[in-house]
Amino acid sequence: MVSWRGIYFILTLFWGSFFGSIFMMGPFLPLMFISPSWYRWINNRIVATWLTLPVALLETMLGVKVVITGDAFVPGERSVIIMNHRTRMDWMFLWNCLMRYSYLRLQKICLKASLKSVPGFGRFT
C-alpha cells in the first residue's frame, strides 16, 4: 500500500528545497564574492527558515510527536550532540529538537573525515 502522505511529504521537501535554493538563496550568490560574512549571515537565516518546513510537515502532516528528554540546553553555552544514525530521518528529529530551543540557525555539523572529499559535503562546499 502506497502512503500518499509520505509521497506528498517527499515531494514537498524536494520541490521546496529546489525552488528555495533558486529563488531564496540564488539572489544572494553575488554577495558571496562581495562580502562573505554578510552572505554567510543571510544564508544561515534562509536555511534555518527552510528547516522549519520538514519539522512542520513531520508534526502536522505525518503526526510525528517528538519527546525531548535528558539535559536541557543551557542558554549561552555550546553543546555537542552526537547522533548514531539509527535511521535516515534522525536529522529531521534533530531539527525538531533545535527548533524547540530556537537554536535551529545556530547548528554546525561536523562530518567524519572520509566525507571531506565528497562533492557537496567536503571542503569545497
From TrEMBL:
GO terms for biological process: phosphatidylinositol acyl-chain remodeling. The keyword Repeat does not apply. It comes from the Eukaryota. Keywords: Membrane, Transmembrane, Transmembrane helix. The chain crosses the membrane at residues 6-34, 46-68. One of its GO terms (molecular function) is acyltransferase activity. SUPFAM superfamilies: Glycerol-3-phosphate (1)-acyltransferase (SSF69593). GO terms for cellular component: endoplasmic reticulum. InterPro entries: Plipid/glycerol_acylTrfase. Residues 66-124 form the Phospholipid/glycerol acyltransferase domain. The keyword Transmembrane helix applies. This is Lysocardiolipin acyltransferase 1. It comes from Capra hircus.
